Amino acid sequence: IYSLPTPFYVNQKINDKERRKALRSALAATANLSLVKARGHLTEQAPLVIDSSVEKLTKTKDVEKVLHNLNLTAELARVGQRKIRAGKGKARNRKYKVKKGPLIVTSVVCPFSKAAMNIVGVDVCPVSQLNADLLAPGGQAARLTLSTEGAIQTLHAKNLFYETQASKTKEKQT
Predict the structure, then answer these.
(1) CA distances from 50 to 29, 47, 70, 107, 165 (A)
(2) Is pLDDT at 4 greater than 70 in this prediction?
(3) How open is the CA angle 45-48-51, to the nearest 5 degrees?
């Protein structure tokens, strides 16, 4: 029995500084409303911060209520449509194309992640596992991102995605 080959980009080495810079620029683009709208998202607010209490939600229905209360009904309707792919991809188990919707960033892995998993187009990720592919799918930056207050506190407290302390001291010495 043979396994499917892994795509070449999964194991591709990227320099740490380059990866961090890509992540920082993708994070910065999520705060720009005009870029978020240009990407196709239907929203009136770009950097959305929600209360950390939503991380305790365990039902998909409750998560949908939260998203509707944030006026993301049109966005969820846009993402809810799935189209049949053109070409031979249909025969290769890639029949449907689904649009990317909002990304929800939590402080830790929580029951909320499992609850939001069933909503089409919505991705949930803990702040420690953020990457440029989630923030800029297809290389196109400015994905609509909802962050919990705890995620933003964790981002600042741990100085995630910034240069290491050793590289900062090297710059001071020169």
Answers:
(1) 19, 10, 9, 12, 31
(2) no
(3) 140
Name beta bridge partners: 98. Answer: 82
Using alpha carbons, select from 128, 151, 159, 120 the residue that is nearest to residue 50. 151
**Cα gap 161→27, rounded to integer Å:** 10
* Strand pairing report for 82-84 and 96-98: antiparallel
The answer to whether 144 touches 89, Cβ cutoff 8 Å, is no
Order the strands of the 48-50 sheet from edge to edge: 48-50, 145-148, 103-106, 123-126
The alpha carbon dihedral of 124, 128, 132, 135 has a sign of: positive
pLDDT one-digit tens code per residue, 130-144: 999 999 999 999 999
Q: How far is CA 85 from CA 41, 99, 102, 122, in A?
A: 21, 12, 22, 20
- pTM recorded for the entire structure: 0.83
> Two tokens at 25?
């620029």
Question: Cα(first)–Cα(last) distance of the chain, in Å?
Answer: 57
Looking at per-residue pLDDT, the higher value among 132 and 163 belongs to 132
